[in-house]
Amino acid sequence: MREIQETITRRTKDRLGEQPPHPAAIAGLYLLCISLIWFLPGFLAPELFGGGNAYPFIIFEYGGVYLLAAVLFGCSAALLFALARQMSGPGVRAFALAVALLLLYLVPTYLGGSMQMILPFYVPGWDYFGLSPAVDVLMSAVISFSGIGLLALATIVPILLIDRYAPMKRPYAAAAVLGTLLFPCLAAAIFRTDPVPSLIPWLSLSLSTLSVLCLGVAGAAVLSIPLVVRRLLKGSGNPPQQARIFGLLLLCLLLVWFVPGYLEPGFFLTGYDSSNPSSWQKRSWFTPYGPGDLECPLSTLPTIEGNYLIDMNVFPAGPHSIISPCTMYTHEHTEERYIVGQQWYRDEWTFRSEKRTLFESLTGIGEVSETTLDLGDHLLAAGFERSDAEREYPAWLFINETTRGYILTYERPFDDGRSNDFFIVYYGTYNTMGPDPDRSLKALIAQRLSPSAIRAPGEGLYEEERLSRMPEAEPFLYISGMLRYAGILLLTPFLFGCSAALLFAGALTELETQKRRFAIAIPLLAAVLLYLSLISAYLTGSTWMPIPPFYLPTSEPLGVSTLLEVLLNLMIFLSALTFIGLGVIAPYLLLKRYLPLKRPFRAVLVSGTLVFGILVYPLMMMLAVWGGLRPAPWLSPLVWVALGFCLAAAWAVVIYAVQAAAGRKG
């Protein structure tokens, strides 16, 4: 294999010499890449872009298309980087290119009436603008090509800046890899981003586009940090400047603190947030559960009609299978059973299509009629305002020989009506009906009602709607979300590994310059970090310290003002995480004389990544979720921080021994 590679390299050099490829060749390849990104998804997996829900097996079929599009986007980013790098005056030319691409994207998208950034994949038969097919295809191509160019430009801007001041060894490979890694995050942002609210409506598209582009720039900058750390630590033989080392250390620690809670707050937030719930909460938002306290667990729902025992993820047969899976509620005394099921949609076109299909299915097995619900006493008992209790709410009433049920629909219940979330919720009897099933059904409906978002189910049922340009790609979004979360779980430990390597470089340089003994300096530094991490915790009266305590704007664990909470949280986190980093590097500082390593900085980076990703991070998070370690209140923060330090140091010793043994064998 190596001989083949050398032969190809030699022949390529003989043919091209040392001259770089012509810009026209690069531009041609770039156009080919973005054309394939535009055409292949809709061509290879048209089921995902034709409307309606996709079958589960399409997720696996589309996985290859998704990965192919990501790799092609990475290639297009590398080619665009090559073009930008060959330009004279890169700053001015790159800015002019960005303005040109922005105009090419915004103008035709505005003509199509869009209010948010889109990246439409062409599928034959789609009506984008309502014009001739040729014009529709041309306009779609202009929008898509310029949109892909903007995203690629956003991902290479940090690399252009870094390469200018700290030249990379393989910048084109870095651009390709970063573009491929960022594709899931950018794609999910495009398809999930709602129109940005604006006082001037025509600014919404510009603001939505800029928000996605800023996400691309920020993501590329974060992913470029390990490259900068590697360049800095490798250096030119001279020790790096301490200011640069500790500046990057602080940046890495801040990103470890901020990135997980910012990119995926739903995974670090428990409970309900009615203003902006996570996708996991939306999947069962209108399904009532118990309060989950000491008096009544989640599996028991108290109402004014009595208690109901809950059985989740039920797949009923017969007419009840219209919405599945369902949650079953059994009355504690009468043994009457009821079911509640909901469907959640992210766009209006699919919501109305599914509502129409549901209506036609119900009319085939029973009688459907429009009705209004008076939920007065039930809403008051559930804690709603009297004004809500005095209203009547529209619904469908479904009746056949064995079943009685209500269907409610909700449109945009979150973010003050700006979210693209739509719900169909079914409440019905199961198998047998009691003397007055409406009382129980109304009690269940009242538990999770959203008065401002409820709509008549028949509203707009048969209206002619213009086809949306947004693809119906549920598997696409699902894969994007999972890859993004997996990327966060990998990126966070890697950033900590970079911070550990920087801390090792800074501490080693400082201690060798000052000629201080490591055995004395390390305990002193540990004492200072421990003191800094504990002082804020004790000032706020905290009795436990989750590590890492990711900051979330919606949570106020310290019970103080938001700004003060952020500052105290940040002070606790930075000092505590640095203390754990000291535990990682302590074996490398103390044992380097006895078991020297060939590449100590790389060894520390690997050790920090493994320690944080395998042990400290998941263990501390699990303990925090399960209630934490809580001995005497004044000892608890000390125990938490000391536990993290000891775990990190113990595992670092093991990893150090393995690396030293492997180095000796090598």
UniProtKB/TrEMBL annotation:
Entry keywords, A to Z: Membrane, Transmembrane, Transmembrane helix
Transmembrane segments: 21-44, 64-83, 95-118, 138-160, 172-190, 210-233, 245-263, 485-508, 520-547, 567-591, 603-626, 638-658
The keyword Isomerase appears for this protein: no
Domain of life: Archaea
Protein name listed in UniProt: Uncharacterized protein
